[in-house]
Design a protein that fits this description.
InterPro entries: DUF5683 (IPR043738). This protein has 208 residues and is mainly alpha-helical. 67% of the residues lie in helices and 11% in strands.
């Protein structure tokens, strides 16, 4: 009877011990789950966002490159914008000058003589109808030339702005691309037995 009672006590003790281990294990699982849920937003914050890089470059050219840590590209972005902007301004100045000169030449008003500021005007005899007509034709062509250049450069500025955004977006997509030393491609000569003939080939091995 005492032996049976002892077995019952041992059995109950084992059940209690098993229940305790189950509760402890469940607590550890819950703790791990909570830790995982808590850490997940932190991991998401570390993800490099192509959308953010695109938006940054759209708001301020070069900012997306800074977000991608491609700081060496920023000077080239502003050199490009500065160069295009300079030639836009230069062509626009000459377009406005030749446009005013053309208008003043045709209005026959002695008070409006901007055409006299042009280089090479001394080669034209403005009292001669033929020379005056030739000068009008030359000024018309010249103002069209400067206007086309200016408009083309404005389009180039817009295209360069778009290129700046595309560059930032592509760099952001490739930001987490693995280019470590673990990636390698090895090749070596090899021979295969094909229909009882030896065939020379190249064996490629890609390690990652």
């Amino acid at each position: 009877m005492n032996f049976k009672s002892a077995l019952q006590k041992i059995f109950i003790f084992c059940l209690l011990l098993l229940a305790e281990q189950t509760v402890i294990g469940q607590g550890l699982v819950d703790a791990d789950t909570i830790a995982t849920v808590t850490q997940k937003p932190m991991e998401e914050e570390k993800v490099h966002s192509p959308k953010r890089a695109t938006l940054y470059s759209a708001i301020l050219p070069g900012l997306g490159q800074a977000y991608n840590k491609k700081y060496w590209k920023i000077p080239f972005v502003y050199i490009g914008f500065g160069t295009i902007g300079y030639f836009i301004d230069w062509n626009n100045d000459y377009y406005q000058l030749t446009k005013r000169a053309y208008i003043h030449l045709r209005d026959d008003d002695p008070e409006t003589t901007d055409y006299l500021k042009l280089k090479g005007i001394e080669y034209y005899d403005l009292d001669n109808a033929t020379d005056k007509a030739n000068l009008e034709t030359a000024l018309s062509k010249r103002q069209d030339y400067y206007r086309r250049n200016r408009d083309f450069l404005i389009i180039s500025m817009v295209a360069f702005y778009g290129l700046n955004i595309i560059d930032a977006s592509v760099d952001a997509h490739l930001f987490n691309f693995d280019v470590s030393d673990d990636l390698s491609l090895n090749w070596q000569p090899s021979m295969l037995n094909f229909q009882n003939d030896l065939v020379y080939c190249i064996n490629l091995t890609f390690n990652f």
